[in-house]
Amino acid sequence: MKRKTRIKQRWVVLIVVLLVILAVLAGLYLWQQENLKAAANARKYTQQELREQLADSRGSVEETLEQHPEITVRDLNDEERKALRSGELTPQELIAILTQPKDSGAKAPEETPAPETTPVPETPASQPVDAPTVPTPTPTPTEAPHEPTPQEIYEAKLSELVAQVYVMREQYTAQLDAMVAQAKAEYHAMPESERTKSKLLSWATGYIAKANDLERQCDDQMEAILGSMNALITEYGGDSSLVTTMANSYANEKRIQKSIYIQELEKRGIM
Description:
Helix content is 69%, strand content 0%. The protein is mainly alpha-helical.
């Protein structure tokens, strides 16, 4: 009886191990398929065409957001991108800026001119002076603080999640750009004798590994944001098409960016 139980346990362990291996292989296959598509597009399109595709992909998100005017969020402008990259703005500060309502600019209160005072005639020190009568100010009624409605809470949370995607995209793009700039500088510093295909490929492998690690981090963060977004929309009965649009746009942008980087590698004879 014990022997049969042990055999069953071994089979269960073996099945679990096989399932894990299959899952890993499936993930590697899909990842490799994405890289093959990116490589094919790098040869099919010019860099200008790829950048236009990138703009179209981001435009699809904007079009979806326009169908939801209650969502108060916008993409970064050039000044905000520079401020984030330089550290002048933190991600949280930028998210707060991106989710501000368009009409939230509060005007400074106008100064009220001081009331004119009538000069009091001087009185000898020996003569008592009656204290002036000061009118009692009428208390101004204070408005009760506004309690946000469930719909307002939903809109604010959803806007913040969309802003997180915008900021995260810029953060990782900045890291990739920095990596590319460093690689270009190292390439230009190489003597011609070191620019053989085998040596360049070996040198580029280190940067490819770093880019892959960065991609996995970005994928994990994006998956977490989309999961929170989907849970929020489900809870409030919202439109789930936004999650689909954000996921598709992210996948498209990633593929296009890879194609652009592959073109750079091919230009230098590395691929």
